[in-house]
Design brief:
- With 210 residues, this protein is α/β, with parallel strands linked by helices.
- The protein contains 5 helices and 11 strands, in the order βαββαβαββαβββββα.
- It has a 9-stranded mixed β-sheet with strand order 2-1-3-4-11-10-9-6-7, with helices on both faces. A two-stranded antiparallel sheet has the order 5-8.
- Strand 10 (168-173) and strand 11 form a beta hairpin.
């Protein structure tokens, strides 16, 4: 069954996400406007710069690469997709957007999770009983290239995976088909975790849109 995922922005900027969705059996609809969004089966919120800290009640102490217009448009997309109960997958910044959208906050700078010499850092995580259990098992190794993380968890969200230092690595909404991972599955497609996550998300989209 065909499955189309919406990503806000230009295809050139998010080519690795497009390849990952295609490799898992789906297609991507890119747009700079919200108009075609709800014709799609699911929403993918990709990585990128930091959210504006005022959105979670803080002054800017360590946030950078902010995109205010993108923040506003992705919040509008979450309004639309959650109202329609269509699936959402947030990756890195996308997880943080999901958390802030539901009233959570972010730690603006954390040690030990950023890229090293331009390459993803690898670290271990522990997974709770969740959508990730069958994909990652209880313990797994994931990649990391972020300097911010969930501080206060948003309303209705559950932390379902954590790093050894306690940083939240994945979340799921308690009642809605909304998932978020802090790591980058689109850069783990040659291994099992990335490909399996995209396949699971596409299967979720197909089930919800029957």
């Amino acid at each position: 069954m065909p499955c189309t995922i919406f990503i806000l922005g230009e295809p050139e900027r998010y080519a690795n996400y497009s390849r990952a969705v295609s490799s898992a059996g789906g297609s991507v609809c890119f747009s700079d406007t919200l108009d075609p969004a709800l014709t799609c089966d699911g929403l993918l919120l990709p990585g990128g710069g930091d959210l504006e800290p005022w959105r979670y009640g803080q002054l800017n102490t360590d946030s950078r690469g902010m995109e205010p217009e993108r923040d506003a448009m992705e919040f509008a997309l979450l309004d639309r997709f959650t109202a329609a109960q269509k699936p959402v997958l947030g990756i890195c910044r996308g997880l943080q957007t999901i958390n802030v959208y539901w009233g959570g906050s972010l730690a603006q700078d954390i040690p030990g999770h950023g890229a090293v010499n331009g390459k993803d850092r690898l670290h271990s995580v522990r997974t709770e009983d969740s959508f990730l259990s069958a994909l990652c098992g209880e313990y797994a190794t994931v990649n990391s290239a972020h300097h911010q993380a969930v501080e206060r968890l948003g309303h209705g969200l559950c932390a379902v995976q954590r790093a050894a230092d306690g940083v939240i690595e994945a979340v799921a909404h308690q009642t809605l088909p909304v998932w978020g991972v802090q790591w980058h599955p689109e850069r783990l497609m040659s291994g099992s975790h990335g490909r399996l996550l995209f396949q699971a998300f596409l299967n979720l989209c197909r089930k919800k849109n029957l």
